[in-house]
Amino acid sequence: MRGYWADLLSGWLAGLGVPEGIALALAYVVGGTVLLIFAPVLALLLIWITRKVISRIQDRIGPNRVGPYGLLQTVADALKLLSKEDIMPAKADWTTYNLSPILSVFSVLMIVVVVPFGPGLIGVDLNVGVLYVVALGSVGIMAAIMAGWASNNKYALVAGFRVVAQLISYEVPMVLAIVAVVLWTGTMRFGELAARQSLEIFGFNLGLGWFGFLMPGALLVFFIAALAEAEQTPFDLLEAESELIAGFHIEYSGMKFAMFFLAQFLNSWFLGAILATLFLGGWQGPFVDQVPILGVVYFFLKAFGVYLVLQWIKGTYPRIRIDQMTHLAWKVLVPLMVLLITVQAIIQKLPVGAPAQYVLIFLANVAVVAVVVQALGNYYRREEVRSKRAFEPRGLVGSMVPAEKGVMY
Question: pTM for the whole thing?
Answer without folding.
Answer: 0.86
